[in-house]
User: Fold VWA1 protein from Oxyruncus cristatus.
Amino acid sequence: RLHAVDITSNSFRLMWPKLLSQETGYYTLEYAPRDDLARKRTKQVSGAHTSFVLSNLAPETTYEVALIPESNVHYFPPQSTRVTTLPEEISPAQVLISDSGPRSFHVSWAPMLDSVMGYQVLYGPLPGNSVKVLEVDGRHNSTVVENLAPNTTYLVTVTAIYRSGKEKSLSAKACTQEGE
Assistant:
């Protein structure tokens, strides 16, 4: 009856029925990656609780979890469950170019993630090595690139800067329309 909800790539919430109270004991939570049970970690949780969030977990990992009621009144058997965290979401997973004109085009990307602090949009004509950078706030997932040359192919690279400091990039090609 121990089960997990709100599963993400690095956390989940464990829920269980009320077995103890503040006065009658506490719970010991033990959890470890299934393929590395030696890395077992233990948490003590007050008897008043019926849920607990485990965080700082590895993405795409199956955890063995045991809930051990430590009662000074009754014996309760340990409950166990197995929970697999989600794959780490990566942004940008897709980059879309639209509304292309002679001197501008629209760039958008997905998915939107809370773990991304901001984006850098790099663009430059192909072939060539003159690159310009636009900084975009992490709350936005699109921007307009302007002041371009008509009838030109551009390489556009969107880089997500994560709060953790990690970066992920994805590129797309864009062509401006012929000018008048």
Summary: Residues 12 and 121 are 33 Å apart (CA to CA). DSSP finds no helices and 14 strands in the chain. The domain at 94-176 is CATH 2.60.40.10 (Immunoglobulin-like). The chain has a mean pLDDT of 93.
